[in-house]
Structures are given as C-alpha cells and as structure tokens.
Specification:
alpha/beta; 8-stranded parallel beta barrel; 24 helices; 16 strands; globular; binds phosphoenolpyruvate; binds magnesium ion
Amino acid sequence: MNKKKRNLSSPNSNVEDRLNARAVSRGFAIGKVVCLHGRKRQFYRIEISHAQIELELQRFRAAVNLATGQLKKIAAQKNGQITKTKIDIFSAHLLILEDKSLHSKIETIIEGKKVNAEWAVKIVTEEFVAQYKTIPDAHLRERYIDLEDVADRILTALGGSGNAPIALEKNSIIVAEEVRPSTLIELIESQPQAIITENGGWTSHTFILAREMNLPAVTGVKKILRQVENGDQVIVDGFSGQVILNPRPDTVKRYKNAADEFYESKNVEVEKTKVELNTLDNREIIIRANIDLPGGYAQAKKSGAKGVGLYRSEFLFNQYKGFPNEREQIEAYRKIAELVGAEGVRIRTFDLGIEQLADETAKREKNPALGLRAIRLGFSHLKEFRLQLRSLLQASTVGNLHVVLPMVSDVSEIIQTKMILKRERESLLKKKIECGNLRLGAMIEVPSAIFTIDEIVAEVDFLCLGTNDLVQYLLAVDRDNETVADWFRTLHPAVLRAVKIVMQAAEKKGISVIVCGEMAGSPAYVPILLGLGATEISMNVNSIARVRKVISQIALEEARELVKNLENCRTADEVENTATIFYREKWTHLFPNNVFPSKKKYKI
Ligand code: PEP
Ligand code: MG
C-alpha cells in the first residue's frame, strides 16, 4: 500500500492529528473510518465470516451474469442509435467480462481473504491495471481503461443483483473523495455516524441528505483517503469543521459530552414548537418541509411544518434502482399525500441527469449541470415523463398534490407539459380511471427563467424558487465543486435582485412562491428572504426549529429595512458586511457570532 499515514501512533498516545475542513452538516461524531471507493458505484471493504463466503461468491456470480446480459443486449443492437465503434467496445468488454481467469482470481480473494465481492474486484482490477500500465505498446497499454469500465460494471451490478451488500459496522464514519446521494441512501440502514469528504459543497445533494438525516459532515479535506485507513478512530466536528485523527482519550471524552448536550438540546427545541408562526409584527410566515427520504414527513410535522414544499421524487429512483413503475409511483405519491393532508405536497418531476440513468448509449457528459438534466431529460425520455405525470394524475385523487417542473428555462416547457398532462388525463378518463386536480408549478432556478418570469407566471399556479441552482447558474459556480466553493455566494447582489424580480412578478399575478433551496433553511439568510418578499419557505426538516426561532423574534418591517440597506451593495462582501452590521445592532441575541461563512482571502 502506498498510503501515507500522517500519524501512526496508537489511540492512547498523546499525538493526535487535526485536519481543517468545511463543516456542511452540524453535529459531533466519534467513530471508526470506513473508506469508500469507486466511481459509478461506491463500495468499501468488509470482512466476512467463513459462513458468508458461499453467499458472497453467489452474489459475485449473479452480478457477472447480470452485467454479461446487459452487454450482450447492447452488443446485439442494430437500430442505428448506437454506432459500430461503440458496439466494438462493448464486445471487447464482453470478452473481458467472460474471462474465466478474472473470475477465478476474484473468487480466490473472496475466499482466501474473507472479504466482500466489491473489495475483491477492486484488488484484482488494480493488479491488472498496474500490469497493463507497464506495457510498452501504447495501444495495448490503454486497454486498462476498458478493464476499469468492466470493473465498474460489475460493481454496479453487485448493487443491483438483488442481494443486498453486507451492512457497515456500527459507529462507522464514511471517508471518501465524494459520496454519491444514492450511496448514502443505501447506507441509511447501517446508520453511519458522519461523513468526511474531499469534494462537495453546502448545496450538494449528499450534504442536503446528510442534514436531513442528522448526520454530521465535513468536506474539503485534501487527499483524505491517503491519510486514513479502515478502522482508524476519528472525531468529526460538524460545527468547526475539524477532523481529529487518532484522538487522545481526553479529547474523546470532551467530544462525547458535547455530543450528548447537542442532541439533548435539539430534542427540547422540537417538542416546544406549534404550527402557527408569526413575526413580531404579526405577519404570518409559512414553513414547509423539503422531503427526500421516505418517512421524512413525520419528523417535519412535529417540528411545525405545514405540508411539503418540495418532494424530490428522483430519490425514488435510488430507492427502486431505476424508474419506478406506474403502480409504485402511484403508491409512493398517495402515501405522502395522505400523510400530509390538506396542506399539500409539491412533487417535483424527476430532476435527474442522463448519467444517473446509467444509460449505456449516452455519451458521458462533459458538464452534467449544463447537460441533459431535469425537465430536459423528461422531454428526451418522454415515455418515463408521461408515466410520471400519469401516476401523479391518478395519485391526486386522494390528496392535495401539486406538480413542479425542475430547471424550467422558459414558458414553452410549461406549455408542452400542460399538453402532455391534458392528453394523459383524456386517455385515463377514456379508460374510466379517475384523475384528481393537479396544480402546476415551475422551479425558478436558471437565469433565463428570471428574465422571462412574466411569461412563466402567466402559465403556472405557483412557483418554487430553487436558490441552490439559482446561485450556481447565475454565478456560474458548480455547486458540487469544493475548489470553487468560495465563489458560491448566496448573498451576491445578482441573487438578491433575481429573488426580488421573482417575488414581484408572482405578487402581481397573485400566485405563491415557495423558496425551497438551502438558503431558506439558513437562519442567517431567512431575514433577507423575508425582506425581499418571501412568505413561504420550505426547508430541510432539521433546520425548521432554528429558522422558526429567528422568524418569531424579528419584525417584518425590520427585515424590509435590512433589505433596503442592501440594495446599493455592489458585491457579496458588501452585502455580508452591511447585513452583519445590521444583525449586530438589531439582533445580537439571535446572531451573537460570525453570521456568514468565512471566505478565503487571496493575496494580490
Ligand atoms: C434548488 O436548486 O435550490 C433546489 C431546491 O433543488 P435541488 O437542490 O434539488 O437542485
Ligand atoms: Mg435545483
């Protein structure tokens, strides 16, 4: 192993290593490192018992069969959708996949080292890749890429072969370059304690989920996988962003106490809440919940949420390992609609990227955020889009359902969706299948939607303001890329002006706007949103208590005054400085410390 460990001391020695990271989900955790590997499918090393070996071998063989079947199907395609070159590549992959010596090496590792199939695939692939890389002939040398692709395919199949992988040990802290949302969802049942990554941002879906799961998380630790090994003890401080490797016993004790206190105080906050929420000058503000995980609404209701402002239906895709069928979708939507009742659920149609579909024939996208994603993917996968709309029409008979279209760039996409909805309704009614009333909304999250907002509001029943993407697209900053995290400025004047434009257009038309990006769940940003005209905000369940506290202790008139002060600011720094002064003068009791995340200073 070429791993360079920083500190090889025992947990009881006096030496501990502290690494600085960016905190992205609050809380403390103490546990043992589990390293995650893999690209398309992520995995980790697990030691198995003698009795589990046979099952693990079967799991591996089932995955190879599944992957072989997929490749044969693609290689047999003759419909012109796939080029001859691609078929040749897939045929070459098939040869590698069917190679008996590869199988037997992997099986020997499973048996001999008593490890899970994923780990055995990794070890064998690394060995082969290392050999390929020494070949002098450049053409042959590059075949290692094919080998890696085949390994990825087996790993993906191991996740979808029907046999669940073995669970993580208790107290595991996930360490990875990056954690995919689907991996996190798969790991929920193992109850990991925290996440440490090299990459990701505050608004990455993985960290949105982590906050929803109450899972402390930090990001931005360079080369983290080189600094730790499976089983190392580690502390994650999701407030300061510190990671402590091989902590001293007194440090562990201190953090254990802090963790107990933190979780006790959270429980008290939740119990005390009521549903109604007014500012000091008696203006009602509605708080709704963002729901990504099954069962998430029970907790939201306890915290005082009025219905669901955003249900990210694409997480069903992770749950079902692909597009759920009509029956599964109707069931899922009805379940949440019945649970939520009169306040209603805004269900967003699948906001997926083509790469998440693992579509074999799709080109790898250079820039997925600007690629075939969200509503665009809906139109390019019309069968699945229609099926989702048809399911929603049927599910809406039992509750108050609304549908929201993600990443709308102008009104044409809304008009086309309305046509599809009309056709689906007619076809269902013809078959004597009942349909409910479905209200239609648009997510406002790209600049072109801001500049054509008047046309959009004319065609929808409500808007959802997705500030995560709005900041990403307005400022051209990848929200998942840690290296540009300092440019992701939620309080950039361009963002504030865009929010205001949306609020004014909706008010003129008399429709509601639900602000549902992470900005709405941040106590520091909420007064600014209220001052800009927001009256409905939707957030991560675990933010509700803290946001309620702020709203109930400020006056709307004050929030408006604050926004007036921000109007002439030229940069995000100016906005943050002006707001900080205002907070100190008026609301020190609510914001005693630094309000906004600190940014790197560049020497010029
Ligand atoms: C947003 O972009 O603000 C949003 C709510 O949607 P998502 O985070 O799922 O992209
Ligand atoms: Mg979005």
